[in-house]
């Protein structure tokens, strides 16, 4: 969008195509329903929380700044945990962690997987056959038990969690991008363009890529929520990075605290990460559903039919 | 026939990969079950046994042999139903799984039955009132519900029904040291403990069944044979139950297979929330204790049952609807 002229002249076609695709998405957002706008607004709040965590949190999230298990009050607006660390600060930094994991996993798995799918479908042949088998098996493997076991063995670190989620996440976008490309490839206008001498690269970026991009965006949002849930679930089981502040880790610490349920502590220790996680997931779901509806009404039917 | 072979060969390939991951993964990772690493002291192992003791145990559990030999032994034992011995509590892994698996089966089965029945009922209600208030309300509500992951839902139910209302027990599958007068009082106690885990798991699957029933019913009711049934003077009730619902149920039934698979996976987290002594809870404690054979055994049971459910769905679906190409 704001590329300088030099880059523009190097990849003029690519940039204008990307611009067109982005314009389509922007036009789509303008057509969002109330639900979708709420989702977008909510997501913006979380993004602001994540970006400006040091400024709005008031306290560092990993230092003892108060008494143990203080009630919410003027000094600690959401109270403190067992060790006397500020809960609101942990929520702000937790937003960072969740969004970061969601963003990285979704963009690598979604767009990377999508690119693999597009290329395989476009080239066809043996590579495509092999890829399909790999996708089949990856999708058939039960991901949650494997996720638990692999992260247990690889050790608790955010990088490992991201790596495993990408490992299991790329197959679905690859398969959908592949089938989408296969159907687009046979359209008359693409055959015509090819007969007029259009090269592979031109065809891919000019005709095929813009057709597949919207569905990838919808998938990317789905993968984002999935990654956030998976990280929180692993952390909840005690397989998260103990040095990181994430909502899942907060849930883990709170629920492993002895007699948490027999004391009033859960009200300010357990509820905030729970509410934050559910709110973020609902926002993403609202956005995803609206994006799907707006970008391509046929999409839903096609995905339902697969 | 050829397609069946393709389905089965894919199943076998996936199974082999699963076995390989299951076997090699623990052995590729740093650390072993005989040394504890403290997170307080970086890079320093706490000595809990002498080198000689350690070597003895490595040999005892066969961990000192070359990898490929270990793998072959592993496959051989597996074929004989032997999953090895748990390192943390000296029991045979097979026995530990036999103790804990019934609890998981109980809640997974309960959730399958409940979510299918309630989902079909709600879906039918929604389809009959298509585009009306009830339909819209249920659509919006249930779809939003589906976005809440199982363990968060479980925590919410726990906070409401156990902590606030004190209606259900907080942990376990039976009352400890209970003296049951009859089978019925025992069954009652088991059911009482299973309510919340089953409810949580059911709620996670409910939306899928509901949407499938609703959408299939709506498609089915536009078919000619429904119009014929109405034209020959059958009552609405008969048209809906005998003609529409019977045809719409086919995909719901095949979905049940997938559902059991998803529930087996989901039960790991849900059991942890409710401290329910099934396979999931055991897996968690095995992971913490680095008990390789136990982890492998549990992963295998969960993963293979998911694979078998999916295989069954593929095969049955193919049978019921020959047009399907998988």
General description of the model:
Chain A contains 15 helices and no strands. By secondary structure, chain B is mostly helical. Chain B has two domains: 78 residues, no CATH class; 221 residues, MetI-like fold (Orthogonal Bundle). Chain B contains eleven helices and two strands; from the N terminus they run αββαααααααααα. In chain B, a hairpin with a 7-residue loop joins strand 1 and strand 2. In chain B, helix 4 runs antiparallel to helix 9, helix 6 packs across helix 7 and helix 6 crosses helix 9. The interface between A and B is large, with 41 and 48 residues.
N-to-C order of helices and strands of chain A: HHHHHHHHHHHHHHH
CATH class of the largest domain in chain B: Mainly Alpha
Query: Which parts of chain B are unreliable, with pLDDT below 50 for 5 consecutive residues or more?
Result: 37-43
Percent strand of chain B: under 5%
Low-confidence stretches of chain A: 1-10, 299-306
Which fold name fills CATH's third level, the topology of the largest domain in chain B? MetI-like fold
Number of strands of chain B: 2
Give me the strand/helix succession of chain B: HEEHHHHHHHHHH
């Amino acid at each position: 969008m704001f590329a300088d002229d030099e880059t523009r002249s190097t990849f003029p076609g690519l940039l204008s195509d990307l611009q067109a695709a982005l314009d389509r998405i922007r036009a789509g957002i303008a057509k969002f329903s109330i639900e979708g706008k709420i989702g977008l607004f909510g997501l913006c709040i979380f993004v602001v929380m994540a970006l400006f965590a040091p400024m709005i949190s008031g306290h560092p999230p990993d230092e003892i700044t108060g008494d143990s298990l203080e009630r919410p009050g003027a000094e600690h607006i959401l109270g403190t945990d067992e060790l006397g660390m500020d809960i609101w600060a942990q929520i702000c930094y937790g937003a960072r962690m969740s969004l970061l994991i969601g963003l990285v996993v979704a963009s690598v798995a979604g767009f990377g997987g999508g690119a693999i799918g597009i290329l395989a479908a476009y080239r066809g042949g043996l590579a495509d056959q092999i890829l399909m088998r790999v996708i089949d098996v990856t999708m058939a493997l039960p991901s949650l038990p494997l996720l638990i076991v692999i992260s247990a063995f690889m050790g608790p670190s955010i990088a490992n969690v991201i790596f495993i989620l990408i490992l299991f996440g790329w197959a679905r976008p690859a398969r959908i991008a592949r089938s989408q490309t296969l159907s687009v490839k046979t359209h008359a206008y693409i055959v015509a363009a090819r007969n007029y001498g259009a090269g592979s690269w031109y065809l891919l970026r000019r005709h095929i890529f813009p057709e597949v991009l919207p569905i990838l965006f919808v998938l990317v949002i789905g993968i984002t929520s999935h990654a956030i849930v998976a990280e929180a679930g692993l952390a909840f089981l005690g397989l998260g990075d103990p040095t990181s502040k994430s909502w899942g880790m907060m849930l883990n610490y709170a629920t492993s605290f002895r007699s948490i349920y027999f004391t009033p502590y859960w009200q300010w220790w357990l509820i905030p990460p729970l509410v934050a996680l559910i709110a973020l997931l609902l926002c993403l779901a609202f956005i995803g559903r609206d994006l799907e509806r707006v970008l391509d009404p046929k999409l839903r039917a096609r995905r339902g039919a697969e | 026939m050829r397609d069946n072979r393709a389905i089965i060969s894919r199943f076998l390939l996936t199974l082999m990969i699963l076995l390989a991951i299951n076997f090699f993964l623990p052995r590729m990772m740093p650390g072993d079950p005989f040394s504890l690493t403290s997170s307080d002291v970086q890079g320093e192992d706490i000595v809990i046994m002498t080198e000689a003791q350690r070597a003895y145990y490595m040999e005892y559990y066969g961990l000192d042999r070359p990898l490929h030999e270990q793998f072959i032994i592993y496959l051989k034992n597996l074929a004989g139903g032997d999953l090895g011995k748990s390192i943390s509590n000296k029991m045979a892994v097979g026995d530990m799984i036999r103790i804990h698996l019934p609890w998981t089966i109980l809640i997974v089965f309960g959730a399958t039955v409940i979510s299918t029945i309630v989902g079909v009922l709600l879906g039918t209600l929604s389809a009959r009132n298509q585009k009306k208030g009830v339909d819209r309300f249920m659509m919006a509500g249930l779809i939003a519900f589906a976005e809440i992951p199982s363990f968060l839902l479980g925590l919410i139910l726990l906070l409401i029904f156990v902590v606030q209302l004190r209606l259900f027990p907080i942990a376990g599958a039976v009352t400890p040291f209970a003296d049951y007068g009859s089978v019925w009082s025992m069954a009652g106690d088991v059911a009482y403990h299973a309510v919340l885990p089953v409810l949580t798991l059911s709620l996670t699957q409910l939306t899928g069944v509901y949407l499938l029933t609703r959408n299939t019913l709506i498609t089915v009711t536009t078919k000619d044979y429904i119009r014929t049934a109405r034209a020959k003077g059958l009552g609405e009730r008969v048209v809906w139950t005998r003609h529409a619902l019977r045809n719409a149920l086919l995909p719901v039934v095949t979905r049940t297979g997938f559902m059991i698979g998803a529930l087996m996976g989901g039960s790991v987290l849900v059991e942890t929330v409710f401290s329910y002594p099934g396979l999931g809870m055991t897996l968690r404690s095995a992971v913490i204790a680095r008990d390789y054979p136990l982890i492998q055994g549990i992963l295998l049971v969960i993963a293979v049952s998911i694979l078998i459910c999916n295989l069954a769905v593929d095969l049955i679906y193919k049978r019921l609807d020959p047009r399907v190409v998988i």
